[in-house]
Amino acid sequence: MSRQIFAIIPASGVGSRMKSNIPKQYLKLLGKTILEHTLSIFLAHPYIEKVVVAVSKEDQYYPEIALLQDSKVKVVFGGETRADSVFNALQNVPENAWVLVHDAARPCLKRSDLDKLLQIEDEQGGILATPAIDTMKRTQDAKMISHTEDRSTLWHALTPQFFPAQRLKKALSEAFAANAVVTDEASAMEFLGFHPQLVAGRADNIKITRPEDLALAEFYLTRND
């Protein structure tokens, strides 16, 4: 592969919904932290040149993670939001490179999904996603149903999300200037009028958000399919 590929892992959140006294990326699964499981996926891939991990300035735990001392890893400080953390990390990525942005709390990503995403060459980029399978309801006041959405055009956005670094940096910068809502990297690209590609990914690429997700992630990590 001729492109330079960097990975960014924003890991400066506290994960308040986990109800834990430490940030969720440092909780243990099968003897390793969630962050170590996630980081290992990218360090093992031959096409990924470097991994930039964005941590909080108040983070007391990252110095204890030996894997963050790997020569392919650069640790930077994140910002107040995920988008701020990604933007800060992008300052350490060459402008002509492509960048994969992946949630620190998604440790179950399979190599096969990562390889599919890396096949994208269109400079609008793309993301891993899964089609919505549940009936989707729109609310009118957060308690009452307004109507049922057509799920045939709805997808759940996953990570990694894959874009040219310079284009993503510009998209985030302009979204910030306009006070636009940026919930993921694709939404910043959409703000500039781009239409990233949807790459169908596996449903076991879960984001650990609540305590009950830990057992499910542990189950997925022990499977080899």
Provide a descriptive summary of the structure in words.
GO terms for molecular function: 2-C-methyl-D-erythritol 4-phosphate cytidylyltransferase activity. Catalyzes the formation of 4-diphosphocytidyl-2-C-methyl-D-erythritol from CTP and 2-C-methyl-D-erythritol 4-phosphate (MEP). Belongs to the IspD/TarI cytidylyltransferase family. IspD subfamily. There is one protein chain. With 225 residues, the chain is α/β, with parallel strands linked by helices. It has a single domain, classed as Spore Coat Polysaccharide Biosynthesis Protein SpsA, Chain A (Alpha-Beta Complex). Helix content is 24%, strand content 24%. The chain is built from 6 helices and 11 strands. It has helices at residues 34-43, 82-90, 111-117, 165-177, 185-191, 213-221, and strands at 5-11, 28-29, 32-33, 50-55, 73-77, 98-101, 126-131, 137-139, 145-148, 155-164, 197-200. The strands form 3 sheets. Strands 5-4-1-6-10-7-11 form a 7-stranded mixed beta sheet, sandwiched between helices. It has a two-stranded antiparallel ribbon with strand order 2-3. A two-stranded antiparallel ribbon has the order 8-9. A hairpin with a 2-residue loop joins strand 2 and strand 3. Helix 4 packs across helix 5 (185-191). The radius of gyration is 17 Å and the shape is globular. The model has no long low-confidence stretch (mean pLDDT 94).
